[in-house]
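User: quick one
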Amino acid sequence: MPITWPTRLLQSPAVRVGLSISIATGLYGVSFGALSVTSGLDFWQTMALSLLLFSGGSQFAFIGVVAGGGSGLAAMGAATLLGMRNGIYGMQLNVLLQPKGWRRYAAAQLTIDESTATSTGQTDPAEQQRGFWTAGIGIFVLWNVFTAVGALAGGALGDPKQWGLDGAAVAAFLGLLWPRLKGGEPVAIAVVCALATVLAVPFVPAGVPILIAAVVAAAIGWFSHGRRDEGLEPDIDPYTEHHHHGPGAGTGTVPGGAA
Amino acid sequence: MNLWMWLLLACLLAYAWKLMGYLVPASLLRNPRMSRVAGTMTIGLLASLTIVNAMASGQALVLDARLGALAAGGIALLFRAPFLVVVVAGAGAAALLRLAGWN
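Assistant: Done. Structure below.
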């Protein structure tokens, strides 16, 4: 689909939502970069996570386990389990976008909550394409730039606890969990897994309680019957967000398109 | 070097998950039981990560300023605050409580 950059492209709702969410999510990379270096990872380990792993929840899980004194194996396990949902997103996006050749491998790396949400929120196939690639590439670039900023500034911050950075991580995980708690059953699963975690902490090495909770959650899913798609929707609904802020807010690049 | 090894393996596995969705025929993954397990596991992991980051310190359970961050994040979410505001509320609450002398 030939589009003239930038006027036609910036009139696309999917592109504008993709740019908004790119900036909001990208800025948060500062927090990841700073937390990562204060968790004990060095600059290049931090950058490797943002460039290669590129999935916010899994990245925070990895450094969270390391910060708690857990082993590299436990950190890898938590990150990998948390990344499982990206496989489900990939399946949905494969049906919608049908990327071929090298684009399929690029699309896979850009498959995260936000790019999936931006794409699947559109109905027009061309808009689904634009939404996915705008959000995916936009977040990838900004997330990595701001991870580097955070990692470099992190050392200059002094004791991260003084700035409440550990509190930021707690709130971030709650913020990722929150949209999934629709209805009584997801809440019950969350409570059971939180309890299992608290009970396990004193008895097993750091990091392992998270894996125990994952096994408990998987067993609940395997043996129970109910809504089969719960928790699978992307963390962020960019269209609700977009509506709150008004069209094009935060992008700073929309040349009065709405007027 | 040991941490590097696990880190790179985590990156490889993360990409493997993502790519798997594009390579496996859609019909195979539409198994309701597998989707359900993926859904409950995501909820369980996020709940566990939230509480570990709020209360665990190695193998000890501690009540400190991080609980304030949990409460502040929850309140921000109840008011439908954007994700970034929720994170800032958590950081602010923990920082202020420490400033007030609660570790």
